[in-house]
Each structure stands twice: as C-alpha cells, then as structure tokens.
Amino acid sequence: MALFDQANEIGIATLVDRFYDKVQADPQLGPVFNKAIHDWPAHKVTLRDFWSSMILRSGRYHGNPMSVHRALPRFPQALFYRWLDLWRETAREVFAPPAAELFIGAAERVAQGLSMGLDLGRLSLDHPSRVLGPLHIVS
To answer: What local confidence, expressed as pLDDT, does residue 30 receive?
Structure first.
C-alpha cells in the first residue's frame, strides 16, 4: 500500500531516501554511485531539492545536473535502465498510482536527457532489460 496519495515534500524525501538506499546497495549501481558520492546525507538533500523543483516547482534546486554528470567517469547507458527500474519500483511503493506515474514520467525524461547529453544515445523505454530481468554488467 502506498504511503502517500499525492506528491508532497515528505513523500519526496521518503522516495529519495528509499531509492538511494537501494542504489547504494545495488550490485550494478552501488559501485558507480558510491565511488562518485562521498557525502550521501548531503547528496540526498540536494536530490530532494531537485525532485521538489521538478515535481512541485518549489525552485529549491539551483544546480546543473548535466555538468555534474559530465564530470563523472564515463559509464554504460545500461545503468540508466537499472536506475529507472529501481526508481519505478520505489515510486510505486511510496506513492499511489497517479503520483507514482508522475514521478516515473519525470524520471524517464531526466534519464533520457542525461543519456542524450552524455552522448550515450537515446534510451528505449521498451528496453529488453525490462522484460528479461536485471542487467548484469561485467567490467
């Protein structure tokens, strides 16, 4: 059962905290994110501000996600699919369907923009990983 019927600041904080806890522990995403992020509590505050600005139009986020991601070591596009899978799962745990789909649609647009901006190409939101199960990235 969803914790929140609609998007609000407490729901956003819950979504961000749960989602990035999963990311940190994920065998595919964890190594990449944990190497790049040295202060998770501070980063989660930034991410709460980002999603509040995206969904609630609060104007709290003033960063540039593209430049931040461009400064990172190159990573495979496949990680966007894993990120989206976890985001969808967590959004549906935290929010009732209409609000969850709002967050999912926004995340898909963010992932698409980042993938294109990082010259990784366009994401297929019907990617086979959604049908076949989790991706296993070998490095």
So the answer is: 93
